[in-house]
Write a structure and sequence with these properties.
The structure holds two protein chains of two kinds. By secondary structure, chain A is mainly beta. Chain A contains no helices and eleven strands. The chains are: A mainly beta, B mainly beta.
């Protein structure tokens, strides 16, 4: 596609349920990033992929969070046993090789009730 | 702790005035980038300055980088109401890109 695509756009879930967020980066972009943004706050780094490998997972808040990337393209961020504090906008971005400008998707608004 | 921190946190100016935002960071960087976020979600890339560059221009934007002070500034000249947004600096630390908390800019018509 022409840009970074994220789905779903909005997700409302109950506390304790698992959710899966998807990111389709721009074709040919090898670097992919996940960030989390709470209302009125900055972007919190979660994880970075170069190809299918994640050199830095240090930003994942807890072991309930995991992410994978397959075929050097689509990435999924999974949150198990969601908690209310997980409510935020989850943003995905890709760049051609890393070390270049990031192109952002529109994000997934996650609300945990 | 934040790798990058902007100041001020919020800035309100009249249309036509210039707006200056600053960013400080802690570790060595490969490059520094500025992004804009309108209310809503998507961030838009504004400008990238590499560690061996000191100043860069793009339209009404001027960015400076002082690696000895580990700081950068973003100047928006002749501001417009449409420039109202949050502005973030992002530091590329060779292994990941870290964002600061942002500056909220309001341009009053």
């Amino acid at each position: 596609g022409a840009g970074v695509s994220q789905s779903p756009s909005n997700k409302v879930t109950e506390k304790g349920k698992d959710v899966e967020l998807r990111c389709d980066p721009i074709s040919g972009h090898t670097a992919l990033y996940w960030y989390r943004q709470s209302l009125g706050q900055g972007l919190e780094f979660l994880i970075y992929f170069q190809g299918n490998s994640a050199p830095d997972k240090s930003g994942l808040p807890s072991d309930r969070f995991s992410a994978e990337r397959t075929g050097g393209s689509v990435s999924t961020l999974t949150i198990q046993r969601t908690q209310q504090e997980d409510s935020a906008v989850y943003l995905c971005a890709s760049s051609f090789q890393g070390n270049e400008e990031l192109f952002f998707g529109s994000g997934t608004q996650l609300s945990v009730l | 702790s934040q790798q990058g921190e902007e100041d001020p946190q919020a800035l309100s100016i009249q249309e036509g005035e210039n707006a200056t935002m600053n960013c400080s960071y802690k570790t060595s960087i490969n490059n520094l980038q500025w992004y804009r976020q309108n209310s809503g979600r998507g961030l838009v890339h504004l400008i990238l300055i590499r560690s061996n560059e000191r100043e860069k221009h793009s339209g009404r934007l001027r960015v400076t980088l002082d690696t000895s002070k580990k700081s950068s500034s973003l100047l928006i000249t002749a501001s417009r109401a449409a420039d109202t947004a949050s502005y973030f600096c992002a530091t590329d630390t060779y292994d990941k890109v870290i964002f600061g908390p942002g500056t909220s800019l309001s341009v009053i018509p």
